[in-house]
């Protein structure tokens, strides 16, 4: 069954799912995993009220 057939707009569902993910992990990590742009993921984390603003992306080794 297609989401449209039951009245659910697929774009809204996708955006909601990404918003939930960016609350659990840094936006750059989610963007890379899903293949979306960093700015899109950052915007969604801001809209969702996320607090990953101090995350420093990159390779961190000791």
Keywords:
mainly alpha; 62 residues
Commentary on this structure:
There is one protein chain. With 62 residues, the protein is mainly α. The chain is built from three helices and no strands. It has helices at residues 10-24, 27-34, 38-48. α2 packs across α3 (38-48). The protein is elongated. The model has no long low-confidence stretch (mean pLDDT 77).
Helix-strand blueprint:
Elements: H1 10-24, H2 27-34, H3 38-48
| Helical content band | 40-55%
Spatial gap, N to C terminus:
50 Å
Percent in strands: under 5%
Question: Class by helix and strand content?
Answer: mainly alpha
Rough outline: elongated
Secondary structure: number of strands:
0
Q: What's the total helix number?
A: 3
Q: Please compute the radius of gyration using only Cα atoms.
A: 14 Å
Order of helices and strands: HHH
Stretches where pLDDT is under 50 for at least 5 consecutive residues are none
- Average pLDDT confidence is 77
Summarize the biggest pleated sheet. none
Short overview:
This protein is mainly alpha-helical. It has three helices and no strands.
């Amino acid at each position: 069954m297609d989401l449209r057939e039951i009245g659910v707009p697929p774009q809204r569902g996708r955006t909601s799912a990404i918003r939930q993910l960016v609350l659990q992990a840094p936006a750059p990590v989610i963007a890379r995993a899903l293949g979306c742009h960093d700015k899109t993921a950052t915007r969604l984390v801001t809209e969702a009220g996320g607090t990953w603003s101090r995350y420093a992306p990159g390779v961190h080794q000791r």
